[in-house]
Amino acid sequence: MAGVLTICRKELSDHLGSKRYLLLFALIVVLSVLSAYTGSEYIRDNPNSSFTSIFSGSMNSSFSFIYLMVLFGPIIGLALGFDAINRERTRGSLSVILSQPIFRDSILNGKFIAGVAALSLLAVSTVGIITGISIPMLGYGPGGEDILRIGLFTLLTILYLSIWLAVGLLFSTMTKSTTTSILMSISTWLFFSILISILATLVANAVVPVEVASGFQMVQGGNQTMGDIRDLEDMASAFNRTQTFQQTETSEYMESMEENANLEATIQKISPTYLYEEASQSLLGVTEGGFGQGGNPFQALETTQSVSSSWPQVTVLAVVLIACFASSYMLFLRQEIRAGG
Q1: Which positions ≥6 away from 122 have C-beta within 8 Å?
Q2: What separation in angstroms does the CA of 250 have from each of 238, 245, 256, 294, 300?
Q3: 112: nearest Cα among 330, 335, 329
């Protein structure tokens, strides 16, 4: 345990003093301040919204704190972990560390704990800054339930960032070159943050294609020539065609749209970014309503409902974290480490 604390203190000091961490921290803080402004504007425009909407906004806007974490969170976690092990190999210091009375697993545990501590500091600080800025802008602060939601959301964000730290640590353990590990990290980030949504859309459209019903063109044609209709029987026929479209074609069209959207969402659930976004919406009291709910795509959830609805996503994220770290752990313990790296 003493070896773990020694490695952890050393790595945490390196993280907090590195230009890489300070640059990412400053970038996230600046973007978080801007997201707090947009979230406060949304709350002012929608008085019925809760204080936690400063993190989610309208959810139709791409600039919210959740979106920032979805896009930049993987970069932060990977940046702290992609060279944690192979950097020591390149410098030749890994064998020197192991020559000391320190167990091999203490190195990996200490580096991971230090990374989680640095990410926790970033998450707690940014959430606190957003909350502190929004209070004077709105003229009121969060209530007891809002504080609980914000606390749970902060823990979820730390879990999400830790997953990418574990992924970076895994790549650093697998490869001896920092260049290879950073390329693997960037590829993983691009796939799960950007490409997965494009692939999901393509697959969903190929499996469940959504096409405008032929009756829609028929109704449009009838509307365009309505001025030329002189006979009451023709008008009645056109009206019946419209009613038929609304009752049959529209139902089939909406069903195919819903199947398409469900398939697309199912494919995207293999991505930690999508799971984090879903769980964040639930914990902040907002969930997607789906089709046929009177045009209201979002509906508020109580705290207990929020926790229960987000629990499956949180469980999967925790399993991914454990799997990545366990893989790094077993791989590192089996590797042969010689003098000089």
Answers
A1: 24, 25, 28, 76, 161
A2: 17, 6, 10, 15, 28
A3: 329
DSSP code of residue 299: E
Identity of the amino acid at 260: N
pLDDT in tens, 87-124: 888 777 777 776 777 787 888 888 999 999 999 999 99
Tokens 């494919």 belong to which residue?
267
Q: Across-strand partners of 287?
A: 299
pTM over 0.85: no
Tell me which residue has tokens 């509906």: 299
* Residues in Cβ contact with 136 at an 8 Å cutoff, skipping those fewer than 6 apart: none
Chain Cα centroid distance, residue 291: 23
Model pLDDT for residues 211-243, shown as the tens digit of each residue: 755 544 444 444 444 444 445 555 556 555 555
Three-class DSSP category at 339: coil
Q: Which amino acid is at 165?
A: L
Tally of CA atoms within 13 A in the half-sphere of 202 that contains its CB: 5
Q: Which run of H or E residues covers position 167? A: helix 144-174
Q: In this structure, how many other beta carbons lie within 10 angstroms of the beta carbon of residue 126? A: 23
Q: Where are the extended beta strands (E) located within the chain? A: 286-288, 298-300
H-only helix segments in 175-302: 178-190, 196-207, 214-224, 232-244, 250-268, 272-283
State the Cα–Cα distance between residues 335 and 99, nearest whole angstrom: 16
List CB contacts of 175: < 8 A, sequence separation 6 or more: 86, 181, 184
Domain extent listing, the chain: 2-196+320-334
